[in-house]
Amino acid sequence: MKLYFEGHGERYAVEQSLLTLFPGERPMYPEVPPSGDNELELSLEEGPDGFSSRALLRRDGHCYEAHSHVPSSEGVRDVVSLTRLRRRCLQEAFYLAAVKHLGYEPPWGMLSGVRPVKLPVRAVLGGATLEEAEVQLQDRYRVSPLRRELAMDCAREALAAKAALGPRDISLYIGIPFCPTRCAYCSFISAAGHNNRLIEPYLAVLHDEIRAAGARVRELGVNIHSVYIGGGTPTTLSPSQLSALLGAVREAFSLSSGIEFTVEAGRPDTMTREVLTAIRDGGGNRISLNPQTMSDQVLRTIGRAHTAADTLRAWELVQAVGFPGVNMDLIAGLPGDDLSGFQDTLSKVLALGPENVTVHTLALKRGSRLKEEGSEIPSGSQVAEMLDFAWAALRKADYLPYYLYRQKFMSGALENVGWCKEGLSSVYNICMMEELHSILSLGAGGVTKIIDYESGSLRRFSNPKYPQEYIREGPRMIQEKRELLL
Ligand code: SF4
Fold it and tell me: What is the per-residue pLDDT across 265-310, written as a single tens digit (0 to 9) for each?
């Protein structure tokens, strides 16, 4: 879509709205006002009483016009607040014009960010009541009733998690970017192959990083509140590699007993009794077993090298080895799936009764095979039906939503939601998603986020992204990170 601006240069904010409202469109910036179709003219004026914006959206031979005015509150003169108001004004005008064209309001209204729950959490921490925070979602951001309910349930969980945090608590993330084979919807950096020749050199650098980070954490006197080993598929590692890894983590960070320690086993085809026993004996007490779908046909289409029967066998093994917490991930909107297939998947998973179920919406990014091949996927409205069904079925089965996030390129601009049985949420997921405390990330692609509680500011340190880079640059990176950390 051609974007032409007058009176401002807010490309980033407008592009975020474009991605959410018209996910297939990419921005183009003509030099002169456009005069054709599929284009947006967006102007802004700043007056003594606030910002005014006008949007002219030309699409499919029609022109849609909308206006927005955002008053500047008394005394708001700082650059950050004024920038927020300006962006909100522009996004609102664009949104109102887009709604005239679309003929419906998107479920998350004007919100385009990945963390919608942060808004009510921030509002309450700033002194608002929960009711006032919900009214803000409704009036200012035009969020639909069902999504407001989801967001407010997750906000309550986040506020409870925040209240339970100690002042020196942080969480630890460790990435294992290897998978047995590559799923067709994956755009992650993960390297495929059980016996990938990079695994051993990768683990050697990772062990060095774990030792260095553990020493720094002890020097600083901070406390590890939860641990998450994710990927990729950590269970691509052999039982002895897993035992050594979990042992190194326990030793380096002197973990308190009973803290939440998740290992994202992920692919059912990697779960053997030996692998699961190595995780349990190494201190792992929460495991993620991800069927994604219980349809063998859909599994074949998305290139997962396992069947629904493998998932059930893996479930039996997980039960036999014994883990207090099990999460199962599902994806709504996979190619070849439909509402009845998704209903069948969810019913089969609910019959197992895991402590957590995470319902994702398919997000096809560049780099995934499905995206490159232009595969047909269920429409946004079909995916919305699947999520509405999940919402009702999970609540009926006594699950509560506890964290949620959105991604770019999601079908229907919907969301991913983590559901839990009462009192059995994952504290790591909440703290990480709502940025409630610092996260120390180790391994390729890990992004350490250091939160300054006084100012609310956030610093990041990114590890090298790819396994080869991580192996090559590991020693230098470990030293640099040590100096910057916490
Ligand atoms: S298991 Fe996850 S990280 Fe691995 S290939 Fe599949 S989608 Fe990608």
Answer: 989 999 999 999 999 999 999 999 999 999 999 999 998 989 999 9
Residue 182, ligand 1, Cβ within 6 A: yes
Give the residue numbers spanning the domain of 423: 165-475
Nearest CA owner, ligand 1 atom 2: 232
Q: What is the CATH number of the domain that holds 330?
A: 3.80.30.20
Structural Rg of the chain based on CA atoms = 23
| pLDDT tens-place string over residues 412-432 | 889 999 999 999 999 999 999
> Domain total for the chain?
2
Q: What is the pLDDT of residues 134-180, one digit of tens each?
A: 999 999 999 999 999 999 999 999 999 999 999 899 999 999 999 98
Contact between residue 376 and residue 420 where contact means Cβ atoms under 8 Å apart: no
Residue 184 C-alpha to ligand 1 middle, in angstroms?
Answer: 9
Q: Ligand 1 pocket, 179 CB below 6 A? A: yes
Find all residues with CB under 8 Å of 231, minimum gap 6, and list them: 175, 176, 177, 178, 179, 190, 264, 266
